């Protein structure tokens, strides 16, 4: 193979806001909000969204509705992937209840979790057997792009982790997810461990890291670097605004900026970030997630915080005004910032669960949406009422537009069926 034709490995993003981010204690997203997140992630050029749990019945209508949006090319080319446990029963439920084509399947691999989570019901060999059976069954059922998750990989014996990954690859898995489940790794340990794993198994590595020790972005980026340095593709898991269990996951915008502008990556062709990645959506998606979760964006949040481009010190302000590169590594315009925002300060008519037809038409007239007749307007109003019950928040512009443009899909998203209805 000539140098000119040599394959260059790539770093791709798999966002897990709609799976791990929504598991944030005391918080969550309604199914409409998860759908808008998927639409935004697609516009942002994200490779894949882990959009939910296909073995969980309350997710079924939402999952299938979003897969329908994918078939309609509303969410495209981003992949929609489900998360299941690496057990055959979850595989069967996933393909029975949904049309999902991509799956990540997870099982614990550390001695700590095998002994104290599984309680002696399964050992190391049993973990591998369960995983291999699940991968083979999923492949038989037509699942593509299977990822295998080693939960608590950072506390797993490295020799066993390599054995586990080799078995996953032989069974048909396309990548292995290295889960730093407790945020235990530092940038140096994850680099060494991922490099050893990738070198031994020669399989793309997915990095899933948590922020318990405050190093999640650094650890994620170091893991991706190790994968690329070892000759395999890297996939990094992120959540919008770093949402997630306990101290959260790797923030989407921070990871992209680190991969584009940190000193070891900027202008280095070896580390190729998926060219579809579009930071122009950063400001919009961060603000929407903040509203939907009900969690304010910290003032000093990377890229999207109110102070991310604020300069008060005389020296800093003077330097920034002379040349932005004196005190700014990247441009605020690149993140979709800088446009003036219009805020209603007078009368404001909103659409909600008790809206009447006149107020409802006023809201949609502002959005320049016209209805064919009164029946269509009434049908959409009814869906808007359901949506407001669903989200328990005033609906924002893109939610209202989604309902008007895709009423049949919105109806599916809002519909919850008891378990007996699925039998």
Structure in words:
This protein has 423 residues and is α/β, with parallel strands linked by helices. The protein has two domains: 10-289, Alpha-Beta Barrel (TIM Barrel), CATH 3.20.20.70; 345-409. Helices cover 42% and strands 12% of the residues. It is built from 15 helices and nine strands. The chain has helices spanning 31-43, 60-71, 88-97, 111-116, 124-140, 158-171, 187-201, 216-229, 252-261, 282-293, 314-322, 357-366, 374-391, 397-405, 407-414; strands at 10-15, 48-52, 79-85, 102-108, 144-151, 175-180, 205-209, 234-238, 272-273. An eight-stranded parallel beta barrel has the order 1-2-3-4-5-6-7-8, surrounded by six helices. Strand 6 (175-180), helix 7 and strand 7 form a beta-alpha-beta unit. Helix 2 runs antiparallel to helix 15 and helix 7 runs parallel beside helix 8. The protein is globular. The termini are far apart. The mean pLDDT is 91.
Helix/strand order, N-terminal first = EHEHEHEHHEHEHEHEHEHHHHHH
How many extended strands? 9
Shape: globular
Radius of gyration: 23 Å
Distance between the termini: 55 Å
CATH superfamily of the largest domain: Aldolase class I
The CATH topology of the largest domain turns out to be TIM Barrel
Note the main sheet. Answer: 8 strands, parallel, barrel
Mean pLDDT: 91
Specify the CATH architecture of the largest domain: Alpha-Beta Barrel
- What's the level 1 CATH class of the largest domain? Alpha Beta
Strand order of the largest sheet: 1-2-3-4-5-6-7-8
**Low-confidence segments, ≥5 residues, pLDDT <50?**
none
Structural class by secondary-structure content: alpha/beta
- β-strand amount: 5-15%
How many structurally independent domains? Answer: 2
- Binned, the helix content reads 40-55%
């Amino acid at each position: 193979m000539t140098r000119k034709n040599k394959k260059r490995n790539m770093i791709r993003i798999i966002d897990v806001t709609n799976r791990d981010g929504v598991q944030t204690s005391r918080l969550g997203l309604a199914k409409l909000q998860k759908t808008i997140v998927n639409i935004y992630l697609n516009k942002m050029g994200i490779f894949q969204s882990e959009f939910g749990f296909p073995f969980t019945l309350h997710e079924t209508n939402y999952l299938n509705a979003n897969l329908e949006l994918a078939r309609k090319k509303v969410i495209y080319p981003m992949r929609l992937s489900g998360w299941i446990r690496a057990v055959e029963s979850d595989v069967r439920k996933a393909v029975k209840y949904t049309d999902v084509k991509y799956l990540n399947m997870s099982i614990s691999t550390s001695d700590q979790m095998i002994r104290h989570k599984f309680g002696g019901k399964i050992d190391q060999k049993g973990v591998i057997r369960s995983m291999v059976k699940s991968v083979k069954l999923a492949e038989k059922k037509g699942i593509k792009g299977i990822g295998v998750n080693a939960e608590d990989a950072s506390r797993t014996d490295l020799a066993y982790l390599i054995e586990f990954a080799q078995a996953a690859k032989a069974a048909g898995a396309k990548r292995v997810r290295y889960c730093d489940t407790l945020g235990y790794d530092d940038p140096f340990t994850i680099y060494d461990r991922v490099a050893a794993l990738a070198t031994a198994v020669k399989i793309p590595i997915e990095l899933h890291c948590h922020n318990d020790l405050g190093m999640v972005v650094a650890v994620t980026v170091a893991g991706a670097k190790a994968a690329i340095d070892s000759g395999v593709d890297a996939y990094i898991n992120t959540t919008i605004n770093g949402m997630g269990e306990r101290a959260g996951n790797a923030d989407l915008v921070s990871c992209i900026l680190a991969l584009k502008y940190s000193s070891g990556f900027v202008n280095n062709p070896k580390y190729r970030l998926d060219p579809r990645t579009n930071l122009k959506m950063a400001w919009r998606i961060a603000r929407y997630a903040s509203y939907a979760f009900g969690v304010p964006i910290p003032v000093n949040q990377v890229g999207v915080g109110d102070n991310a481009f604020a300069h008060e010190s005389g020296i800093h302000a003077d330097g920034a005004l002379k040349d932005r590169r004196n005190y700014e590594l990247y441009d605020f315009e690149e993140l979709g910032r800088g446009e003036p925002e219009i805020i209603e300060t007078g009368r404001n008519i909103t659409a909600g669960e008790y809206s009447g037809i006149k107020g409802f038409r006023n809201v949609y007239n502002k959005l320049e949406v016209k209805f064919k007749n009164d029946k269509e307007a009434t049908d959409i109003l009814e869906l808007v009422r359901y949506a407001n019950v669903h989200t328990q928040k005033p609906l924002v512009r893109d939610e209202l537009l989604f309902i008007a443009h895709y009423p049949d899909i919105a109806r599916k998203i809002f519909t919850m069926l008891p378990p007996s209805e699925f039998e």
